[in-house]
Amino acid sequence: MSGSQVPGPRSFAASTWPERYAQPDSYASCPMCRKDFTAPDIGWGLLLKRGVYGNAYLWRAGRVRGYIVVVWTGGHVARLTALSPRQLAGFMAEVISAGRAIEAHYRPVPKLNVSLLENDIPHLHAHLIPRHPTEPSPGHPQPFAHLDHDHQDETRIQSDAAALRALLAYTGATYAAESGEGGP
User: Fold this and answer.
1) What fold is seen in the domain 19-173?
2) Are 93 and 175 in contact (CB under 8 A)?
3) Which of 21-30, 101-110, 136-145 has the lowest mean pLDDT?
4) Domain boundaries along the sequence of the chain
5) pLDDT tens column, 44-83
6) The model scores a pTM over 0.85
7) What residues pair up with 72 in beta bridges, in sequence order?
8) Adjacent-strand bridge partners of 125
9) Three-state DSSP string of the chain
């Protein structure tokens, strides 16, 4: 960098964000708000644990075995920053609980990526992506094409879901249960 260049905000081209981001706090356009979070299967994934703040689902899409998504279930919330400190702590405790179950079931798991992105679906959810030793792109984030394309083998998904449910029943109690506080 030459002495005349000062770091600062970059200029960006015109927005190409999806239309639903014009009002991200509106649940009317939210595909997650249309899901039945009481169901054991929401189509996208199998329910592993119903939490106080979010539900953990073993995702069907992609090529990464053990890919879990924890979805906020306390009404429509588009951003992590919209949560109260108690809600944030509770949701993150449930995310970590799911991560511990991944590490216990899929061995070895040298790394676990946790992503909270506000890029596509305007509803708070966390992606937990185990990094298996034989996968592509070690040392770099998984490309979402690897997470979205194809589907997992249904027999394996069902078997993994049963094992993960058992692990989640005994590990990572929710923040609310540990602190004696109520839900969202």
Assistant:
1) HIT family, subunit A (3.30.428)
2) yes
3) 21-30
4) 19-173
5) 899 999 999 999 999 998 888 999 999 999 999 988 999 9
6) no
7) 54
8) 71
9) CCCCCCCCCCCCCCCCCCHHHHCCCCHHHCCCCCCCCCCCECCCEEEEEECCCEEEEEECECCCCCCEEEEECCCCCCCHHHCCHHHHHHHHHHHHHHHHHHHHHCCCCCEEEEECCCCCCCCCEEEEEEECCCCCCCCCCCCHHHHHCCECCHHHHHHHHHHHHHHHHHCCCCHHHHHCCCCC
Q: Is 28 exposed, middle or buried (0-12, 13-18, 19+ CB in 10 A)?
A: exposed
Contacts of residue 138, Cβ cutoff 8 Å, sequence gap at least 6: 131
Contact 129, 112 (CB under 8 A): yes
Q: Is 71 exposed, middle or buried (0-12, 13-18, 19+ CB in 10 A)?
A: buried
Quick check: 179 pLDDT over 50?
Answer: no
Q: Tokens standing for 145?
A: 């094409």
Q: pLDDT tens-digit profile of 127-148?
A: 999 988 877 777 777 777 767 7
Q: Is the C-alpha dihedral spanning 108, 110, 116, 117 positive or negative?
A: negative
